[in-house]
Amino acid sequence: MAYYYDEPSRTFNEYLLVPGHTPADCIPAKVSLKTPLVRYRKGEEECPISLNVPMVSAIMAAVSDDNMAVALATEGGMSFIYGNQTIEQEAAMVARVKAYKAGFVESDSNLSPEMTLGQVVELKEKTGHSTMPVTSDGTGTGKLLGIVTERDYRLSRMSLDLPVSEFMTPLEKLVTATEGTSLKVANDIIWDHKLNSLPIVDDEGNLKYLVFRQDYDTHKENPLELLDDEKRYMVGAGINSRDYAERVPALVEAGADVLCIDSSEGFSDWQKMTIEWIREHYGTDVKVGAGNVVDRDGFRFLADAGADFVKIGIGGGSICITRETKGIGRGQATATIEVAKARDEYFEETGIYIPICSDGGIVYDHHISLALAMGADFVMLGRYFARFDESPSHKVMVNGTYMKEYWGEGSARARNWGRYDLGGKKSLSFEEGVDSYVPYAGPLKDNMAVTLLKIRSTMCNCGALTIPEFQDKAKLTVISSTSIVEGGAHDVLLKDKTPYVSNVTN
């Protein structure tokens, strides 16, 4: 007969943290949120890849493109570029992220000398870039002739028909550097000559890249930036258990730092075969996460298969309807607690620590703190990041309120049936996700700052300055339905607080 669990399956909203002693030196500013991303021998070596904050963005077309990847890496987390697109498109997104932080930016706002001031204005409105190289053929790789910036023209005094050649800053007045110049030397040139940008040209005078002073300033302002050994932003990429033999090489070539098998259910031979193929062709040099699972057996299966991290969660996402469609899943809190215990057992047996990621079920910021306290090394978020400017979906007006479009990979809109299939032909065609809207919340940076401050503050309430210490000291209590009501504002008439809502909840 079927196996029955003794305890009910619980969500994060059914738990609270009981505060512990807070020492005088335990303040949010001193809290480190650094956490391991991939497997390693804990106590014997450093984790080869760690996150500076325990947050990654979901492998979803409505969430994680190259723009999101840059924004999140700037704050210390990582995006996993969605795999529900062609191999070429996904690899190109990864490559753009890796090129971005290298400091050597390929120009996408270029002019020819015959173009007019009116076309300059149109291009600026389209790309948002005010620095525009002028090349012989109007491309980003043509022979450099000059540069146009906002200091070169005044709309109130100049005709929109004026040719670029008559108001650009010509090449002979520009400071340039040759291809092969290091980023450090390029930044020194920028500072020595008080420049905002430095064109990099090859031996024939063709434009190769632009280096911006702003990139240097950005690094100073964002000390938690997630960078690789070459000071480039780090980025993950989603793969599947079908075309991995073609997709993985392309993503590795593009520079992906970590891969992750994107599937609604990971306790399968299909994931094992995918990992085995990667190990056969790349050894342990290519890091790959797997999932999703919700119990000890699923974790052990993927750990033994060689997964570098394991994702937890089935049916808990805000746009996921797997539970009501198929009747499978588990409460996210219960799943996280059991898999965390299995992770610790595996470490005691093998000496190998395999990080776990809680994916789904995060409704409020404090749920992230609860997931970490329960043993998650980091969390994967979809709806949270979908609300921001940097997500790839459209901002729309719905009933007088700005919203962002948000759809699941199992929705008819995404048609990512392979993510939910169980091998064989692509036969599944029923929905396991919905198409929806989420409240627009503005820029990622501002919202994440509030979320991370809440996490650090909660950790201090428990007397912890690191995530491992938090997990060791945390005391969790199950709460009743009336306790949930008591925990929010009640028995009062609330004043309007609409301007603050976007920074309070996910």
TrEMBL record:
Q: Which SMART domains match?
A: CBS, IMPDH
Annotated CBS domain ranges read 104-164, 168-226
Q: What is the protein name given in its UniProt record?
A: IMP dehydrogenase/GMP reductase
Task: Show the InterPro entries listed in the entry.
Answer: Aldolase_TIM, CBS_dom, CBS_dom_sf, IMP_DH, IMP_DH/GMP_Rdtase_CS, IMP_DH_GMPRt
Q: Which residues bind NAD(+)?
A: 262-264, 313-315
- Which keywords does UniProt give here? CBS domain, GMP biosynthesis, Metal-binding, NAD, Oxidoreductase, Potassium, Purine biosynthesis
Keyword flag Metal-binding: yes
**Swiss-Prot/TrEMBL GO biological process terms:** GMP biosynthetic process; GTP biosynthetic process
Q: Which NCBIfam families match?
A: PRK07107.1
**Keyword NAD set for record:** yes
- Quote the catalytic activity from the record: IMP + NAD(+) + H2O = XMP + NADH + H(+)
Give the binding site residues for K(+).
Answer: 315, 317, 320
Q: Which GO terms describe its molecular function?
A: IMP dehydrogenase activity; metal ion binding
